[in-house]
Amino acid sequence: MGKRIKSRSGLPPNKYLTREQVKQLEKYNKQLQDSANKQVRHRANINGMILYVMLNSGLRASELCALQMRDLPHCHGKCIIDVRKGKGCVQRSIEISSELARRFKQFAKRYRKNAHPKSPLLISENGGPMSRGCIYSKLRIFGKAAGIEHLHPHMLRHSYGYMFYNHCKDLLMLADQMGHKNITTTHIYARTNNEERRRIAESFVV
User: Fold this and answer.
1) Which residues contact 95 (CB under 8 A, 6 or more apart)?
2) What is the pLDDT of residue 8?
3) Between 204 and 170, whose confidence is greater?
């Protein structure tokens, strides 16, 4: 059996979204939210929240499913998400924007008004906590309808890592945000379609 080839490059193009593709998803979801059908609007609001949270926090699907009301900004008063059940049972806090904090509060007021502090943020149609499989299914169907094939939670997590790094160039902070045990894991985002490298490559003509 041959040796497995290790890649020193960044993520393949089909593993993350560009900003244009994110806008494409948001535009399609906005169309659904404007629908006259109440059920369509409801699904669009849920899908839109999942999409926005994952793109702006880098949460894993399992971490999103495990979020409780007490973990959110409007409950503890800080612009952070308290991830109690991270990978490897490691707890961490994720810094988030005031806009994401506002959306959490708005979502909770609309869909989780009387929820207990230890109740899950996202619930399924039968009233229980939403599962990873449910999120995968929702995103796959939503992405296909919006023109983005094979959309899945880890693609959104990768997109967060790619865009966060290009915004701040701080691998240590990104590693903390994403819950990477080893920073070498985080280096993949520095090699993924880096905007500075793209600018240099574009300007280099022999």
Assistant:
1) 79, 80, 177
2) 60
3) 170
- The residue behind tokens 């990873």 is 132
Domain boundaries along the sequence of the chain: 15-153
C-alpha span between 155 and 140 (Å, rounded) = 11
With 0-12 / 13-18 / 19 or more C-beta atoms within 10 angstroms meaning exposed / middle / buried, residue 27 is exposed
- What is the enclosing helix (H) or strand (E) of 100? helix 98-111
83-126 residue pLDDT tens: 998 887 889 999 999 999 999 999 999 999 999 999 999 998 88
Would you say domain 15-153 falls under CATH 1.10.443.10? yes
User: Does the pLDDT of residue 157 top 80, yes or no?
Assistant: yes
3-state secondary structure at position 120: strand
- The answer to whether 126 and 71 are in contact (CB under 8 A) is no
Each as own residue / partner, the long-range contacts of residues 36-45 (CB below 8 Å, 24 or more positions apart, any chain) are 45/107, 45/110, 45/111
CA distance 69 to 127: 15
Distance CA 59, CA 105 (A): 18
The model's pTM is: 0.90
